[in-house]
Automatic annotation (TrEMBL):
<keyword id="KW-1133">Transmembrane helix</keyword>
<dbReference type="InterPro" id="IPR006054">
    <property type="entry name" value="DnaQ"/>
</dbReference>
<feature type="transmembrane region" description="Helical">
    <location>
        <begin position="7"/>
        <end position="31"/>
    </location>
</feature>
<keyword id="KW-0472">Membrane</keyword>
<feature type="transmembrane region" description="Helical">
    <location>
        <begin position="51"/>
        <end position="71"/>
    </location>
</feature>
<keyword id="KW-0269">Exonuclease</keyword>
<keyword id="KW-0378">Hydrolase</keyword>
<dbReference type="Pfam" id="PF00929">
    <property type="entry name" value="RNase_T"/>
</dbReference>
<protein>
    <recommendedName>
        <fullName>DNA-directed DNA polymerase</fullName>
        <ecNumber>2.7.7.7</ecNumber>
    </recommendedName>
</protein>
<dbReference type="InterPro" id="IPR013520">
    <property type="entry name" value="Ribonucl_H"/>
</dbReference>
<feature type="coiled-coil region">
    <location>
        <begin position="116"/>
        <end position="154"/>
    </location>
</feature>
<keyword id="KW-0540">Nuclease</keyword>
<dbReference type="InterPro" id="IPR012337">
    <property type="entry name" value="RNaseH-like_sf"/>
</dbReference>
<feature type="domain" description="Exonuclease">
    <location>
        <begin position="531"/>
        <end position="699"/>
    </location>
</feature>
<dbReference type="InterPro" id="IPR036397">
    <property type="entry name" value="RNaseH_sf"/>
</dbReference>
<keyword id="KW-0812">Transmembrane</keyword>
<keyword id="KW-0175">Coiled coil</keyword>
Length: 722
């Protein structure tokens, strides 16, 4: 049936429904004016009045049904299509309108989808051109990011308010090691973009250094750098070098203003202790031997007298012997102290085991001229070792084998055994006694033109390994087996924590120099400018007032409109009670996984520090906040910062959608959920949802935190059906 015919039919039906009562009334009036009409009205028409009333009521109901159907199929359908069009235009370009409803609406949906295809083709062309234009800039940015990530020195860049704008992985690792107490969640609360450097350094110390740099800038100093040494709250000694970040030079402006500062940090605690020990050793060598040398010299001079009695001669000789022994003892003790200091300075590095073996092979061939071959080398194994000293030990062992047993060649074998790596140095020839092996282990290493105060045992112990001798009787071979701990190539997050992210850790934010936390009152701050902590909890059950407890907290941060996946907080918690079977089915956390985990009293202070100075975000936030609020009395901590709920914000943006569950929202916004019902996985997808909702809220005139909170409050009762 065509649209015109359906329209005519609807008009006829509505006309009948609306004119029917008038027709009946006119008929009654006409009949009453005729002779005998009263009897006809009573005898004929009156019995049918209830039927007429029923038919009129049914017609009225049918009219309402028709109008409701028309409203649902056209008005409501077009409203839903409008929200879908908004998704296509902004948050989810791949979204397409479903072709359902009456033919006119289906035709409109087809036209809209066709236009979306054309729009996508044009956007792809524009994006390709923009990408080509940005390639050079991105290459420079990536070079800087790669350089920062590989530096062995801790580097932080801060704005003048002391907020961290950029840092490298070395700084993150060092800040965790500086913590006064054992950290939870891998120390995630200690450092991050947008955090204050004054949580680690005294504000007055930084201010003094900044004033010094400003003074040098005013005097046009070539190197306006400030250096200072300070102690952390954990007692570590840090040496810091501060350099200014200057504004870009502008034409006509002679002076460049300082917009921030760079901190380069070294933990010199161990170096200071070692230098103190070396100073003490030098003092012992000088002051301790000064008197001994004076005694030896005096005794030697007395022995020059020819008429000296033999008894006195023997006494002076004894003085010389005793003093020389004491000096020798002090020298030996100093040498041992120096060897210990040398061992303390060994750096451990992660490397491929195959690279270590190949380096040992090349070194033995080059230094000892002994053939070295490889057999059964597992190239997937990583080790964390001091490669220099370990190569020295392997070369030393090969040298002793060549000198004392005249071996013709050595072979290397590398294999894995669970969390250990077996490195075998193999040779064929004469058997060796255990006493010989022990003597080789305990002697200082000397071979070719090289020597070291260290022993093979020192090297093995420093690398957290073990070594022993084994024999292969069938093949008439023997080998030294060195067991080393296996290592991963680098610290990695669980792939389940990633959604659509890049491989490079997001430690860098080059736009934050323009950001100042003091620029607006928090309620008037734009949503795009705020710093967020997006979190989720897993619990033993759904009723905290009846004793259910948190068993996992996961959180991530959004700074300057960017999701910082690497700055995450994830910690299992011992609830001190059992888990319900229903909750285990949801989150998959078993009692065995919680054994030995810290209690909530230790975890909440760390999470509180992680979330300070930020807006809290959660999906169905009332549930998670209730668990936190019930712990306020026990911990003395209050989470009193503003809270936004992505469930309510979704209802504000899309009031006509059927569901506002996290999965439904993610599907509408073209987000992939990985790791659902893990605290960190849910927190990350909630953060992705928030970043998609912020521009959609702006389209509705909701730009600030205060506006978002008020809009969410108005949609509060809409949350009941979810």
């Amino acid at each position: 049936m065509t649209a015109r015919r359906r329209f005519l039919l609807a008009v006829i039906v509505l006309a009948l429904l609306m004119t029917g009562p008038f027709v009946v009334t006119a008929l009654l009036v006409w009949l009453e004016t005729r002779e005998g009409s009263r009897e006809l009205l009573i005898d004929v028409i009156a019995p049918h009045l209830p039927l007429g009333a029923l038919m009129t009521l049914m017609g009225f109901v049918m009219g309402i049904a028709v109008l409701r159907n028309l409203f649902r199929r056209y008005v409501q359908g077009l409203l839903t299509m409008g929200e879908n069009l908004n998704l296509m235009l902004g948050a989810n370009r791949e979204f397409r309108v479903k072709e359902d409803g009456p033919p006119e609406v289906r035709a409109l949906a087809r036209y809209v989808n066709a236009l979306a295809e054309q729009r996508d083709a044009l956007l792809q062309d524009v994006e390709a051109q923009i990408a080509r234009a940005k390639e050079s800039l991105e290459e420079e940015k990536n070079r800087l990011a790669a350089l920062m990530s590989e530096l062995t020195q801790s580097v932080l860049v801060c704005n003048l308010d002391g907020r961290i704008l950029l840092y490298n992985n070395r700084a993150r690792t060092q800040f965790r090691s500086l913590s006064q107490a054992p950290t939870v969640a891998n120390g995630g609360e200690l450092i991050g973009l947008g955090r204050s450097i004054y949580g680690v350094f005294d504000r007055n110390l930084i201010s003094h250094a900044l004033e010094s740099i400003q003074h040098r800038l005013q005097r046009s100093n070539v190197q306006p750098v400030a250096k200072f040494v300070t102690t952390t709250r954990a007692g570590h000694l840090l040496r810091a070098q501060m350099a200014p970040v200057l504004s870009v030079a502008q034409e006509g402006v002679a002076e460049r203003s300082m917009t921030g500062f760079i901190l380069m940090l070294d933990d010199i605690t161990r170096n200071f202790e070692n230098e103190s020990r070396r100073d003490q050793m030098l003092h012992t060598l000088t002051e301790g031997n000064r008197a001994a040398l004076a005694n030896v010299r005096a005794a030697a001079e007395m022995l020059d007298y020819p008429d000296l009695q033999s008894e006195l001669q023997e006494r002076f000789r004894k003085v010389i012997r005793d003093e020389v022994r004491a000096m020798s003892r002090r020298l030996d003790e100093t040498a041992n102290e120096f060897a210990d200091a040398l061992k303390a300075r060994w750096p451990l590095e992660e490397m491929l085991g195959a690279d270590l073996v190949a380096a040992a092979q090349r070194r033995i061939v080059k230094v000892l001229k002994v053939p070295a071959k490889l057999e059964e080398v597992d190239e997937s194994l990583w080790v964390k070792v001091d490669s220099f000293s370990l190569l020295q030990a392997l070369t030393y062992l090969a040298s002793r084998l060549s000198d004392e047993f005249e071996i013709r060649e050595v072979r290397f074998r590398l294999s894995g055994a669970e969390r250990l790596v077996h490195l075998d140095l193999i040779w064929s020839g004469q058997a060796m006694s255990t006493e010989t092996v022990m003597s080789w282990e305990l002697e200082p290493m000397r071979f070719a033109d090289e020597s070291s105060p260290l022993t093979v045992r020192d090297v093995i112990e420093r690398n957290d390994g073990e070594m022993w001798l084994e024999r292969e009787k069938v093949r008439h071979r023997a080998f030294f087996r060195i067991v080393l701990p296996a290592a991963l190539p680098q610290e990695e997050l669980d792939p389940a924590a990633f959604l659509h992210g890049e491989a490079r850790p997001e430690y860098y934010d080059f736009d934050l120099f323009k950001w100042s936390e003091k620029s607006h009152a928090l309620e008037d701050r734009l949503l795009s400018e705020l710093t967020y902590t997006v979190f989720d909890t897993e619990t033993t059950g759904l009723d905290p007032s009846k004793g259910d407890e948190i068993i996992q907290i996961g959180a991530t941060r959004i700074v300057n409109g960017k999701l910082l996946r690497q700055e995450s907080f994830e910690q299992l918690i011992d609830p001190g009670r059992g888990l319900s079977p229903e909750s285990v089915k949801i989150h998959g956390i078993t009692p065995d996984m919680l054994a030995g985990q810290p209690p909530i009293a230790r975890v909440l202070p760390a999470f509180h520090a992680f979330a300070q100075d930020t807006v809290l975000i959660a999906h169905n936030a009332a549930f998670d906040m209730r668990f936190l609020q019930l712990k306020e009395t026990m911990t003395g901590l209050r989470f009193d910062q503003p809270v936004l709920d992505t469930l309510l914000l979704s209802a504000v943006v899309h009031p006509n959608q059927d569901s506002h569950r996290l999965e439904a929202i993610a599907e509408r916004l073209n987000l992939t959920i990985v790791g659902r019902h893990t605290a960190l996985g849910d927190a990350i997808v909630t953060a992705e949802v928030l970043l998609k909702l912020i521009p959609l809220l702006a389209e509705k005139g909701i730009h600030t935190l205060g506006e978002a909170r008020r809009a969410a409050e108005k949609s509060y009762y809409a949350r009941v059906k979810y």
